[in-house]
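not sure who needs this but someone in the group chat was asking about FHA domain-containing protein from Sorangium cellulosum so here u go. i didnt clean anything up, its just raw.
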Amino acid sequence: MTRDVYHLYRDETVIGRETGDIVFTADPFLSRRHAAIRRNPATGEFTLTDLESSNGTYVAIREDVSLHDRDFVRIGQHLFRVDLSR
């Protein structure tokens, strides 16, 4: 198991199989543009948005979900842990 760390400094980070800021080409469960993590600059809150993917995101969400420190998010075959500490 690899443990990669992704620091999200932009207001939007797209995860996908073919395009995006974080790309996993070998994951057959990811759509080309699968999900986006967005930061509200005014509040600092992060939300996870499914980009109409085939397999869904985090228990097949279809609406935006607020992300909190230590949440776990599964996208395709990848498990992410949210760390909001600075």
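also The chain has a mean pLDDT of 86. if thats useful
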